[in-house]
Amino acid sequence: MQNFIEVEKLLSKKDILKIELIGGEKGLKNKIFLPKIQKKGLIFAGFVEALKDERILIIGNTEISYLKQFSDFELDEKVDLIFTKKIPAIIVTNNLNPPKSLIKYCNRFNVPIFKSSLPTSELIQRVTKILEDELSPKQYLHGVMLDIHGVGTLIEGESGIGKSEIALELIQRGHRLVADDIVCIKFIPPDFIIAECVDELKYHIEIRGLGIINIEELFGISALRDKKRLDLIVHLIKLEENLTPIERLGLEDKKKKIFGVEIPLINLPVSSGRNIAMLIELAARIFLLKKYVNYNPTERFLDKLYKNGKNWMLYNFRNFRKW
User: Fold this and answer.
1) Fewest CB atoms within 10 Å of the CB: 6, 87, 155, 309?
2) In this predicted structure, what is the pLDDT of residue 302?
3) Residue pLDDT, tens place only, 161-176
4) With 90 as the cut, is the pLDDT of residue 308 above it?
């Protein structure tokens, strides 16, 4: 199903876009499907084929200066042409006043027209960012998302395994919470997965026995991040219930595909006496070593055994590394 937002969503961002609605109010339910906008200076000269359907039209100094030289009758002819295309909305920049003919046709064809105090380049940048964010493919995952040493880490596992308690310990260690329980992830081409919290749960975490706690109030804003790139997934498994072998040496690089992007995956056994927060912290450090200096401690260790002629020990490690 194709993502879209309605034009009225732009009004909820009016503090960012510095916009006010000046016409075409009945078209606020118009749908925007594409994050790209268009600023086509030649369309009023008759080159309407340059205008693309379903994209917001930006009008700035050049277009307004051009239209000022025409009479009302001539303006009607020029403005009428652009409404042969399916334009979801028009934004006029630099706090300029558009011709009355343009507002008249926007009302007639139910195309919302806004006026913004921002310069054209700044408005285009802000509108594009909002549309890319809103229209990106998204899904929701159950887990806890944190920024650990700069590594966006998603902690997964069955309900009751202790994800939130582990996250709380990591926050106490100085790491930052992105989202608890429901993690919203978005695909940003070509290969970025961005995780963030749903608005209703922002800054909160649930701890069994204590209830809902506000991380900002307890630890300050420095313990939080609004969003973070997803770099690593740690899947918690109860050791006594797990029937599949667990990797002991770290030779197998497991991946999980999300939106077609492969994210490194670690299956981490949970049992009494294991400091899971510390192990996740360590997993983030190892991720950084592998990514930025291409260093794998397991491979380095086995290479050392091979070079020192410890073939019998190397055989044991390679063949009995499973629990």
Assistant:
1) 309
2) 67
3) 999 999 999 999 999 9
4) no
278: pLDDT strictly greater than 90:
yes
Q: State pLDDT tens for residues 63-119.
A: 888 888 888 888 888 888 888 889 999 999 999 999 998 999 999 999 999 999 999
User: What is the spatial distance between Cα 184 and Cα 154, in angstroms, rounded to a whole number?
Assistant: 11
Are 169 and 277 in contact by the 8 Å Cβ rule? The answer is yes
If DSSP codes are grouped into helix, strand and coil, which group holds residue 253?
coil
CA distances from 201 to 63, 205, 284 (A): 44, 8, 25
Q: In angstroms, rounded to a whole number, what is the distance separating the alpha carbons of residues 54 and 319?
A: 59
pLDDT bin (cut points 50, 70, 90) of residue 244 is: low
Domains identified in the chain and CATH numbers = 5-135 (3.40.1390.20), 138-295 (3.40.50.300)
Least confident of 19-23, 50-54, 120-124, 194-198: 50-54
Residue that has been written with the tokens 């506000």 in this structure: 214
* Pairing between β-strand 19-23 and β-strand 113-116 as defined by DSSP bridges: antiparallel
Question: What's 85's DSSP letter?
Answer: S
Q: Does the annotation mark 204 as catalytic? A: no
**Percent of the chain whose predicted confidence (pLDDT) is above 70:** 87
In terms of Cβ atoms closer than 10 Å to its own Cβ (0-12, 13-18, 19+), residue 148 is buried
Q: Catalytic pick from 18, 181, 238, 321?
A: 181
Which of 85, 163, 186, 228 is flagged as catalytic?
163
Sheet with strand 232-238: strands edge to edge: 227-229, 192-197, 176-188, 138-148, 151-156, 232-238, 261-270, 254-258
Q: Is 181 a catalytic residue?
A: yes
User: Is residue 186 annotated as part of the catalytic site, yes or no?
Assistant: no
158 phi and psi angles, rounded to 5 deg: -65, 160
CA end-to-end span of the chain, whole Å?
44
Q: How far is CA 82 from the centre of its chain?
A: 34
Q: Which of 31, 149, 173, 248 is catalytic?
A: 248
Which of 142, 229, 285, 304 is catalytic? The answer is 142
